[in-house]
Automatic annotation (TrEMBL):
This is Nbs-lrr resistance protein. It holds the Pfam family Rx_N. The gene is LOC107059177. Gene3D superfamilies: 1.20.5.4130, Helical domain of apoptotic protease-activating factors, P-loop containing nucleotide triphosphate hydrolases. The keyword ATP-binding applies.
Length: 448
C-alpha cells in the first residue's frame, strides 16, 4: 500500500528540488536547458502525486514501487544539485581571489565540471521521463488541482434513533438555549458551529437537535445538507432549494433560484444544518448568509454547522460550540450497546475469566482505550460483538488490531480519523505530523 506519509515525504523532497533548481536557473547560466527540462519533468510528476493519495489509488502496491523509484531519483538529484551548488560557489570565490592565469585554468576545470553535471542531470531527466510514463501506465491521473482541495463526500442524513445517543444532554440544552436567546433578542439569523475532532459525535449531536420535538415546533422548515466545501454560493442555494422541494433543479439563473427559495422560505422560520463542512472562504460565506437574510427577513432562523476545522468554525461565527469528549461511563454504555445483545454481557462471556468479568463489570480497560471518543466505543463494541474469548483477550492486551484482523472495525476508525491527516493543508505539515508519530505516546520532548 502506498503509505501516505511516504507520499508526503516525496512531495516535500520534490518541492525542495524545484525551489533549488529555480534558484539555480535564475542565478547562473550553467546547464540551464537541462535544469529547465528537469523542472518540467518534476512538475509533471507532482501532478501525478496528487492522485497517489486518493483512496482508489492509495492501496496499489505498484504505486508504492513507483513512489520508491521516484524517491531514489529525487535523492540522487538532490546530491547532484548539492554538488552543483558547491562547485558554482567555489568557482565564484576563486574568480574573486585568483590571478588571471589561475582564472583560465579555473575556467577549464569549471567547463569540464559543467559537462559532467550536464550528463548527470540528463540521465536524471531520462529516468524522470520514464517515471512519468510509468505513472500513466499505472492509471494515475495528473491532478493539477492539489488533492487537499478535493474534499471528502460523506453523505449523512438527518435521521437518528434517539435512545442510542448518550451523554449529550448538556450540549443539546446549551445549543437550544442559544437558539431561544437569539429569538428573544430579535436576531434574524444565527449561526452555531459545532466543532471537534473526527468521531466525537458532532453529526450525532446535530441530528439530536434537528429531531428534537421542541426544535420541530420552533422551525417550520428544517433542511439538512452535507456538502464539504462552500466555494460557490449559487450551488449551495440550489441544494437548499432541492432539499425543500425534493426535486432536482434544472440549470437556472441565480435570480430564479433565489425567487423560488423566497416562495419556499418566505415568512417561515427555518433551521439549516450544514453537516461536515471542511472548507469555506469568508467572502462566500458572508455572501451566502446575506442572501439568506434577504430571502427571509423574519427573526429566529438558524444555521447549525458541524466541522472538524476550527478555522471553518471561526469563519462562520465567533461563538463556537466546542464539543467535549464523552465520560468513561458514557463510552462504556455505547460499547455495551454494540458489543452485547440488549446491551448486557452474556453469562458465558462474563464467566470466562477474571479479567473479562472485571471488564464486563466496569469496562475499565475498554473505555480507557476509547479516550472519550464515541466512534471508538462504537467501533470497538461492534468489533467484539459475537467474538471469542481470545479476541476479547487481544483487546485486553491492548492490541485491537489483532482482534480486528478478520474485521475492518479497527480500520474504520483509522479510515475516519485519517481524513483529518489527508486534508492537512500541506505536505510539510503531514511530514511534521509523521515525525511526531515516531515518539511513543505521552513521551516528553524538550525539542522539536
Ligand atoms: N453521544 C453519542 N451516543 C452514542 N453514540 C454516539 C454518540 N456520539 C457519536 N456516536 C457514535 O459515534 C460514531 C461517530 O459519530 P459522528 O458521526 O456523529 O461523529 P462526527 O464527530 O460527526 O465525526 P466526523 O468528524 O467524522 O464527521 C457514530 O457511529 C455514532 O453513532
Ligand atoms: Mg460528522
Amino acid at each position: 500500500m502506498a503509505d501516505p506519509v511516504f507520499a508526503a515525504t516525496v512531495k516535500v523532497l520534490l518541492d525542495k528540488l524545484l525551489s533549488l533548481t529555480i534558484k539555480e536557473i535564475n542565478s547562473s547560466r550553467d546547464c540551464n536547458e537541462d535544469l529547465e527540462m528537469f523542472t518540467q519533468n518534476v512538475s509533471l510528476i507532482q501532478a501525478f502525486l496528487h492522485d497517489v493519495e486518493t483512496p482508489q489509488v492509495e492501496k496499489q502496491q505498484s504505486v508504492e514501487q513507483w513512489l520508491r523509484r521516484l524517491e531514489r531519483v529525487a535523492e540522487n538529484a538532490e546530491n547532484v544539485f548539492d554538488r552543483f551548488k558547491y562547485e558554482s560557489l567555489k568557482t565564484k570565490v576563486m574568480n574573486i581571489r585568483n590571478s588571471p592565469m589561475k582564472k583560465v585554468s579555473g575556467f577549464f576545470t569549471h567547463t569540464a565540471f559543467k559537462s559532467k553535471m550536464s550528463r548527470k542531470i540528463n540521465s536524471i531527466n531520462k529516468e524522470l521521463t520514464a517515471i512519468n510514463s510509468v505513472a500513466k501506465d499505472l492509471g494515475l491521473h495528473s491532478l493539477i488541482v492539489p488533492s487537499r482541495k478535493i474534499f471528502p463526500i460523506r453523505e449523512t442524513d438527518s435521521l437518528v434513533v434517539a435512545p442510542d445517543v448518550v451523554g449529550r444532554d448538556l450540549d443539546v440544552a446549551e445549543i437550544k438555549e442559544k437558539i431561544l436567546k437569539m429569538r428573544e433578542e430579535d436576531v434574524v439569523m444565527c449561526t452555531i458551529p459545532i466543532v471537534g475532532m473526527g468521531g466525537l459525535g458532532k453529526t450525532t449531536l446535530a441530528k439530536r437537535i434537528y429531531n428534537d420535538e421542541h426544535i420541530k415546533q420552533i422551525f417550520e422548515k428544517r433542511i439538512w445538507l452535507c456538502l464539504p466545501e462552500m466555494s460557490e454560493t449559487k450551488s449551495f442555494l440550489e441544494q437548499i432549494l432541492e432539499s425543500l422541494t425534493e426535486r432536482k433543479t434544472e440549470v437556472q439563473r441565480r435570480d430564479i433560484i433565489v425567487k423560488k427559495l423566497q416562495d419556499e422560505l418566505g415568512g417561515k422560520n427555518y433551521l439549516l444544518v450544514l453537516d461536515d463542512l471542511w472548507c469555506v472562504d469568508s467572502t462566500s460565506w458572508h455572501e451566502f448568509v446575506d442572501t439568506l437574510r434577504g430571502i427571509n427577513t423574519s427573526i429566529g432562523n438558524c444555521i447549525l454547522v458541524t466541522t472538524r476545522m476550527k478555522r471553518v468554525a471561526s469563519t462562520v461565527a465567533t461563538d463556537l460550540h466546542i464539543l467535549g469528549k464523552l465520560t468513561e461511563d458514557h463510552c462504556w454504555s455505547i460499547f455495551k450497546q454494540k458489543a452485547f445483545v440488549d446491551g448486557r454481557a452474556p453469562e458465558e462471556l462474563a464467566s470466562m475469566d477474571n479479567k473479562i468479568v472485571k471488564m464486563c463489570q466496569g469496562g475499565n480497560k475498554i473505555v480507557k482505550m476509547c479516550h472519550g471518543l464515541p466512534l471508538a466505543a462504537s467501533v470497538l463494541g461492534g468489533l467484539l460483538h459475537n467474538k471469542e474469548k481470545h479476541e476479547w483477550q487481544a483487546i485486553l492486551d491492548g492490541n485491537p488490531i489483532v482482534a480486528g484482523e478478520d474485521d475492518n472495525g479497527e480500520n474504520s476508525i483509522k479510515k475516519i480519523l485519517k481524513l483529518s491527516y489527508d486534508y492537512l493543508p500541506s505536505p510539510h505539515l503531514k511530514k511534521c505530523f509523521a515525525y511526531f508519530a515516531m515518539f511513543p505516546k505521552d513521551s516528553k520532548r524538550s525539542y522539536v
